[in-house]
Write a structure and sequence with these properties.
The chain is α/β, with parallel strands linked by helices. It has seven helices and six strands, in the order βααβαβααβααββ. It has a single domain, classed as Rossmann fold. 38% of the residues lie in helices and 17% in strands. Strand 2, helix 3 and strand 3 form a beta-alpha-beta unit. Helix 2 runs parallel beside helix 3. It is globular, with a radius of gyration of 16 Å. The protein starts with 14 loop residues before the first strand and ends with a strand. This is Histidine phosphatase family protein.
């Protein structure tokens, strides 16, 4: 991972943030750009992946669970919530980047354009606009607000089930030790996790990527 200059932590306070991509969906299977609410359900495999998260995260001390307004993230976090006895907080701000005019398209040209634009945001070109959708600045701002709300609760560790492009772009722009080139070269498979430590004021550091 390419290093950047690390900022000092405000008052030494750091939290752990586990960003988790949702399980496999029916739209994943057909390669469709499914970003609108409520979105597709998990497949049988996706539900199995969600169940396996319980075992994979058994050594993580998690204080709070969060999901997006898209149903696939809520279905993914449900087994973990049951196992930990935790309620799930729902945030619209951490959902996938809006595909705009590309919504539910699955042709190579549309999918490649979506990826190109979101990865351009990860590289710092946040003024670029998704056709019929947001700019990178607008997309990142809503994700920032949601993460800020989560951090403001004061928990030591929050697990957030979100979406692949959103996680990769946001981490590239807000972590101090990875960049857009790294996140573009390291896509996240369904239910893979990115572990960060830090805070919204001083930035985040990636402890683990894609486990």
């Amino acid at each position: 991972m390419e290093a950047r200059t690390e900022s000092p932590h405000r008052n030494g306070i750091r939290m752990r943030l586990l960003l988790i991509r949702h399980g496999q969906t029916h739209s994943n299977v057909i390669g469709a750009l499914d970003t609108a609410r409520p979105g597709a359900d998990l497949t049988d495999l996706g539900h199995e992946q969600a169940e396996l998260l319980v075992e994979r995260l058994k050594d993580e001390s998690i204080d709070a669970l969060h999901a997006t307004t898209l149903v696939r993230t809520q279905q993914t976090v449900a087994p973990l919530a049951k196992a930990r006895g935790l309620e799930v907080a729902i945030h619209d701000g951490i959902r996938e980047w809006d595909a705009g005019d590309l919504e539910m398209k699955s042709d190579d040209e549309s999918v490649n354009l979506y990826v190109k634009i979101t990865m351009s945001w990860a590289a710092g070109n946040t003024g670029v606009q998704m056709p019929g959708g947001p700019t990178g600045d607008e997309a990142l701002a809503r994700f920032d607000r949601a993460i800020g709300e989560i951090a403001a609760t004061g928990v030591e560790c929050a697990a957030v089930v979100s979406h692949g492009s959103a996680i990769r772009t946001w981490v590239a722009m807000r972590a101090t030790d990875v960049d857009g080139a790294y996140t573009a070269a390291h896509p996240l498979l369904n239910t893979q996790v990115v572990k960060l430590v830090g805070d919204p004021q001083n930035g985040w550091q990636v402890e683990e990527w894609g486990w």
